[in-house]
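As noted in the main text, all predictions were made from sequence alone. Below is one such record, for NIF system FeS cluster assembly NifU C-terminal domain-containing protein.
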Amino acid sequence: MSSDAQARQGRQPAQEIERLLAEIEQLPDPQMRALAEELVRALVALYGEGLRRIVERLTAAEGTRTLFPAAGPRLLELLASDELVAGLLLLHDLHPVPLQERVERALEELRPVVRGHGGELVLLRVAEGVVWLRLTGSGSGCAASLQYLRQRIEEAVYRAAPDLCGLEIEEGDEVAGMPARGGTPVPVVFVPRRRGGSLAAMATPQTETSLRGE
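Prediction:
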């Protein structure tokens, strides 16, 4: 099975859970609704604790009781490369790769595509769960090319970091709020958070990390 097929297959149970959670929120009986929500919280806490113990065993320091004294962290990162597993780890703040590093890896894979359209893609900063990017020189002003690149960027970034609160894409050669070449204001495209639902909302945004020394 291809990685794309696995990803689609993994999203189906998550989407079904989100649908059921939405139905729970609409239950007319408040006592039944509270009981169902408490059951969901208990189940999430149960498998979250199980995941925490697995991660703890995999990343235990050398010399402690672990089956993988050296390869454990690498194995955990390999497991986290699966979209479904990554989502579960993120839900419980157990993902081994920091948010910024995941975004940087996604952008590095995407840069050849952007450069193929005559553009460049720069990560400016990650602040409170929002990623700021600058897209310059792409498409020679072609609206269709810009739209295509924005879509590819959005898909790649959110696939790598579904725990993001949002994505800001600046188009131009200067920072947002400052004039670009020729005195034209730099347009800023805000891509809002795409993840929704009660389970997804449990992911915690990252604290600010600036790449411009701010």
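Residues 174-198, 200-214 have pLDDT under 50 and may be disordered. The longest helix spans residues 30-58. These features were considered when defining construct boundaries for the mutagenesis experiments described in Section 2.9.
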